[in-house]
## 1
Amino acid sequence: MTTIKPAAQAGTFSLAGRSVNRMGYGAMQLAGTGVFGPPRDMDAAHAVLREALDLGVNHIDTSDFYGPHITNQIIKDALHPYSDDLLIVTKIGARRPADGSWVSAMSRQELIDAVHDNLRHLGLDALDVVNLRLMGGGAGHGPGEESVLEPLTVLAELKKQGLIRHLGLSNVTAVQLAEAQTITPIVCVQNMYNVAQRSDDAFIDNLARQGIAYVPFFPLGGFSPLQSGTLNSVAAGLETSPNAVALAWLLQRSPNILLIPGTSSVEHLRENSAAAALTLPDDVMAQLETIGAHSD
């Protein structure tokens, strides 16, 4: 009898023509404090990545502007040569100057350079999926209304050259997605969304109808961890952690949602992966719905 690995227990969804387990891993926290510089313990970072694969993760999200360059180098050192079933998704559209800030990098040359940086630091000849990450309102935790035409046209050219296999978008609106789809197919959208931040509810349903993956960033609140008495109460009743409940809610919210919770801890990685096996009763789902009832 075959044992289903923890990260595979929530099932799969098709992303970039591949069947990926819906519980994945986000590599952002492998970098140093503020997603800048190297980690304090490089061996521990390698161990987290190897454990992720052992748990059944076959979808890793990263970017060469994490660090910058640090997380991709860690992924390469820990996992290269990559297993055939591992899908690595990266993103471009920003850069990190010496002060550690996040700056938009959308010129033609910046985009071309970013693709080549990702290829080099990951040790790849072609990138499976590249998300165009729009910065939106400065720090970029919410989308703006800028056109995607010029930057996405550049990436579509690189796709034709064989350097990119598939394209996605990050921090965008439905209007920006529609514009993007006049240029090239879009396989995934990565926006901020969690049990408390629900502004993309209609967008998720629209993407599900199109068979497009939705990958929420900050599924546990990100730099401002989720704080909810309701979430804590539900978790206590189910004898599990609030994080596990928040991740399970996302998995049950829609079948096109793929999770990439990040951590630099093997223990937390295991806790996150275990959420894939957690089924929330209908009354619990309804109770959790109230947390984001007033989300904009």
Note: The two ends are 47 Å apart (CA to CA).
## 2
Amino acid sequence: MMLTTQFARACQAVAVVAIAAGLMGCGPNDGMLNINGTVTMDGEPVEAGSITLTPVDGSSKVGGGAFENGTFSTRAAPGEMAVQIRGHEIVKLPHPTREQVERGLDTERHEIIPGAYNSASKLRITISPDNTTFDFALTKDGKIPEGMSADQ
């Protein structure tokens, strides 16, 4: 009798796992695509930051997320996107107080990406099922990489 009860519980557990696994693959198709790429500044990977992809025509969802070590992988809707990239470096305060050190407040984040790529960005990309990899070769002078401008 005990063996039958254990067998029944094991079967229930397997059924629950199978249903859960099946549901994870199902769900509404949100129309978003997996995209990836790199973010460099003057040829060097940007250590940490974020990328935001906003539909130019306002008809779909905003995409984006954080990136590390100059690489990103996120989801975004197909279409023309306005791109904002922010990057920062962590800088130690030159003369932190004892309290700042004890509280872990002895560093600051400094924005290292010029405004031409974030607050005043003219970066544009077009995402499609055939176009999902983007390499943003940024420069300190704010020059827009070829093929990534609203003016083209």
Note: Residues 1-11, 13-28 have pLDDT under 50 and may be disordered.
